[in-house]
Amino acid sequence: MGERMGEQTRFGSKVAVVTGAGRGIGEGYAKALAAEGAKVVIAELDTDSGERVASEIAAAGTESLFVQTDVSDEDSTLALATAVADRFGGCDLLVNNAAIYGGMEMHSLLSVDLDYYRRFMSVNMDGALLVTRALHRQMVERGGGAIVNQSSSAAYMGGGYYGIAKLALHGITQSLARELGPKGIRVNAICPGPTDTEATRSTVPDVFLDQILATMPIRRLGTVDDMVAACLFLLSDEASFVTGQAFGVNGGQVMLV
């Protein structure tokens, strides 16, 4: 445990990498990790938003670094790993949050353009694996760590290529948990339900959101804070015996037993 501003923090000696942290839930994860004392790397494709978040974290008193990153490109993820090592000496915590979601094209599996489908999968499915491949050795060298992959309740709901990518991410999560567990690295996933972000508002029409909420036991949109609480738990020592799990934070939209 470290200390920040005289208070105990969960991640005071840690370095955390958050992909897709330029806005929305990813930004929430990055800022919450920083508030808990971690040095945070913003791995984001969009330069303006990535630099903004890194600057705001630094202004609040925590070291931060922006690295422009395309998670679907192996060379880009390897460059990210080099930048993390050069600046902070390595990585302890990783949140694979980057995805094509806000403004995504909506097509059926039978009609989606295959080039778009392959690009979508290269980000939403392969990205988490490529970033983990690039960073896991640093985590091992630093004594282990924890990874959280951002999934979705859509994984269980026949949610087209978005849902397929998220369901595949569960398989990646479980396989990596088995491979990396003996090396001291835990790997879990978070499955948000409908969450009040700009990306959701721009992608899902209000009438559809209303229909979804009407079927849920907790009839409200999730918040970024709801997701942050789950993510910090899974990254922390409080979850030291938890790995290979898909953690639903969805207001009861999907119930698995």
3D structure, described in words:
The protein is α/β, with parallel strands linked by helices. It has one domain (2-249): Rossmann fold. 45% of the residues lie in helices and 17% in strands. It is built from nine helices and nine strands. The strands form two sheets. The chain has a seven-stranded parallel sheet, sandwiched between helices. The chain has a two-stranded antiparallel ribbon with strand order 1-2. The longest helix has 21 residues, at 160-180.
Shape: globular
Name the helicity range. Answer: 40-55%
Main beta sheet: 7 strands, parallel
The third-level CATH topology is Rossmann fold
Straight-line N-to-C gap? 34 Å
Strand content bin: 15-25%
The CATH level-2 architecture is identified as 3-Layer(aba) Sandwich
Integer-rounded radius of gyration: 17 Å
| Element string (H = helix, E = strand) | EEEHEHEHEHHEHEHHHE
Spatial strand order of the main sheet: 5-4-3-6-7-8-9
| Overall SS class | alpha/beta
Provide the CATH top-level class.
Alpha Beta
Mean pLDDT: 93
How many domains make up the coordinates?
1
Number of strands: 9
> In CATH, what is the homologous superfamily?
NAD(P)-binding Rossmann-like Domain
Low-confidence region ranges: 1-6
Descriptive terms for the model:
globular, alpha/beta, 257 residues, seven-stranded parallel β-sheet, Rossmann fold, disordered N terminus
Brief account:
The chain has a seven-stranded parallel sheet with strand order 5-4-3-6-7-8-9, sandwiched between helices. The protein has a two-stranded antiparallel sheet with strand order 1-2. The protein has helices spanning 24-35, 47-59, 74-88, 114-124, 126-141, 160-180, 198-203, 206-214, 224-235; strands at 2-4, 7-9, 15-19, 39-44, 64-68, 93-96, 145-150, 185-192, 246-249.
